[in-house]
Amino acid sequence: MTNFLEEKENLDEGQSMQDEVILEASQRDPRLFEILVRKYQAPFFRTALRVVHNRQDAEDVVQEAFLKIYSKARLFKKREGASLKSWIYAVLVNTAISHIRKHKQAKLKELQWDPVLDSVLPDPEGLQEIEKREVQSVLAGILTELPTELRTVLEMRYFEDESYKTIAARTNISLENVKIRIHRAKKAAREILSNLV
Question: Is the pLDDT of residue 137 over 90?
Answer without folding.
Answer: no
